[in-house]
Amino acid sequence: MQAQEVVLRLTGITKRFGPVLANDGIDLALHRGEVVALLGENGAGKTTLMNILFGQYRADAGDTQAFGAALPPGQPRAALMAGIGMVHQHFTQCGALTVLENIMLGRESLWQTRLGRAKARARLAQLMADFGLTVDPDARVGDLSVGERQRVEILKALYGEARVLILDEPTAVLTPQEAEALFVTLRRLVAQGLSVLFISHKLGEVMALADRCVVLRHGRVAGAVRVAETNPAALAAMMVGGDLPGQAVPPGRPGVVLLSLRNVGGTGVDLDLRAGTITGLAGVSGNGQAALADLISGLARPLAGQMTLGGQAVPADWSPRRAVQAGVGRIPEDRHRQGVVGDFTLAENAVLERYGEAGFARGPFLRRGAIRDFAAGLIGKYDVRGGGPETAARGLSGGNMQKVILGRVLEAGPKIILANQPVRGLDVGAIAYVQSQLIAARDQGAAVLLISEDLNEVLDLSDVVHVISKGRLSPGFARGEKTVAELGLWMAGEGFDHAA
Amino acid sequence: MMEIFDILLQASFWAAVLRIASPLIFATMGELICERAGVLNLGIEGIMVIGAFTGWIAVYAGLPLWWGVGAALLAGMAFGLLHGVLVVPFGLSQHVVGLGITLLATATASFAYRLILPEVTSPPKIEPFQPLGLFGPILGAQTALTYAAFGVVAVVAYVLYRTPLGLALRACGDNPAAVAAQGLSVTGLRLGAVMVGSGLMAVGGAFLTLSAFSSFFFEMVNGRGWICIALVVFGGWGPGKALLGAMLFAGFDALQVRLQQTGIGEILPYQLFLALPYILSILALILMSRRAQVPGALMIPFRKGER
């Protein structure tokens, strides 16, 4: 096996963004007929590495080779031309065009006087037969299911003569059945001599599909193992690191229950948020976190079960406004879409939830001066860089935008803080700042619900950890009660069965 | 009702339908190309005016008729370039730019007219395209430009559905990110579509001065551009059905003129007849556009790296 031809080799890839080392001397080799999984948490450097391979970024050091030839850095077409096809998580397809048209797009010279439809159809039929991928070539892509659209994306790469297929979190959008079908397809591709590199943070699919697994952590290769010689717990430990969680943060002082959920949604979700604690919610995204966050932030009302705030059932007209009035501070998952209004100034964004309050309004009129002063104070206090009160929020970096949101939440003196992926996409410095602010809020008596896909983050900060999987919530585990590997099994949905 | 059947049996009626439809066909195909690439071109009304003027003034200056058509095409493409640059790489509002182009083009025609012909009270006449006299009374009454209009429909349909360029254009109008992912230039494709489309709109305008009438009046375009935008919707962004729409509108227009001279015309006010093609077009639009497939990225600027 080791003697197999190397089709893709990355050597010593290093990429620095300011003070952050996103990739640090990464080596990776993909052999002919092999499936390699690139495993790592969010922010481990997987995306940066792929962007370097596809010429979106230039590496500061290191080089990439495809089929023995060096790829010129910084040229997006180079990898494609060399036979490396990428299937992105978000498909680049035209829904109004047919499957055949999508596959032919850009494959022939624009000035050719005739579209070689018949020839393309024959070639596509051959590819579908060879690899057992069936899609109706005349179907409109917009009418297809997500799984079928992914097949179109794979066919597109194969049509472009890709010999190496890179899939970015391919199962994130698939149903389990579709995922299983994808695995069958990928195994068939590999049997025909192609090579597959897939990026994932799901242990189960790595174990099921990959021959080898390369684990990234904090921009470095934390380990490279043959899957046959390892187990999920070992991989999880490698992924999140051996560092003992929760040492840096002193424990909180639990107070009274401020918010309580009993069997909401009818799936046995029981949750208590206590004053002075951070409750962590671990789990792979898409397992019910969004529904829970919507409920607490007022975007949804409980359909079943009970939700109480400070011992009282929430009002029947539970809404975002009611939630704000009840002292729920919200750091939304998608700060661009739900956190700020991009075209509004920082001052306007800073009072977005409170502009009607006496301090900011006099009757129907806004008190512009007071709002500006408030925003200026917030900018200073929370160290927002890149603009003043009159700057449009759109112009800020993600980290600074998040600081504005954080300031808006904390300045309102919330009793409950819903922090949904509060550090996603932020650099190390901003991460540390946001986390320290959440801890400070906890110490002042707030109940914090921290939702994160990053198990490390949850373990570091939380006094109590719940795992969410397929809409079910695990019991709360005290700090240090469960190992990373044990929590990983709960995340995969296994603990529930034993408990039940 | 008998009057209507009488009219429908006249060769002159059908000849008029083809003549009235011709400028609409050119401009509708122009607008259709723009919109299939994802750009709404509201400059159409003004570009038709500048086309009518440029074609006419070129021929008046002594150029051959076909050179006049060429001059109109170039003038249209020039305004198309301006529209395209503002809307595609700069990503400005397509409504605002389009209306601005219409105002600018109309005013430019007026300004140039006064500059070139400061003294005249009524615009001078030119010798327009003559009927070819081939294939009987209906087709024979048409000029070469009408034949060209139908030729353009065939070419547009062929290019859109049978060439790699057309595929790329349609993809641009649906999801430009998919086009960019294949290494093609969305900016180049859209800019080219707007320029060619605007050129066709100007030729539609030039038809009015070089074929339909033999002179230039400012009011002669008279909302035809806006009709063409509706015709694109009516045609569901397909060239064949858009052609059908243009013929239908022209048919109503030719019919109402003739109805005014019949017994019905003595009962009903003539304004009602003038409004007839528009009323019927709106009804047809309502019926037809329900199932229309709007280009997914119409009016959405494309910036690289944004989702």
Q: Any idea what the shape of chain B is? A: globular
The oligomeric state of the chains shown is: heterodimer
Helical run tally of chain A: 18
> Portion of residues in helices of chain B?
over 70%
- Average pLDDT taken over every residue of chain A: 86
Shape of chain A: globular
CATH architecture of the largest domain in chain A: 3-Layer(aba) Sandwich
| Helix proportion range of chain A | 25-40%
Termini of chain A, distance in Å?
44 Å
Largest sheet of chain B: none
Q: Rounded to an integer, what's the Rg of chain B over CA atoms?
A: 20 Å
Structural class of chain A: alpha/beta
Instruction: Give the H and E element order of chain B.
Output: HHHHHHHHHHHHHH
Per DSSP E runs of 2 or more residues, the count of β-strands of chain A stands at 23
Strand fraction band of chain A? 15-25%
CATH class type of the largest domain in chain A: Alpha Beta
> Helix/strand-derived class of chain B?
mainly alpha
What is the CATH T-level topology of the largest domain in chain A? Rossmann fold
Domain ABC transporter (chain A): 8-243, 244-495
InterPro entries (chain A): AAA+_ATPase (IPR003593), ABC_carbohydrate_import_ATPase (IPR050107), ABC_transporter-like_ATP-bd (IPR003439), ABC_transporter-like_CS (IPR017871), P-loop_NTPase (IPR027417)
Keywords (chain A): ATP-binding, Nucleotide-binding
GO molecular function (chain A): ATP binding; ATP hydrolysis activity
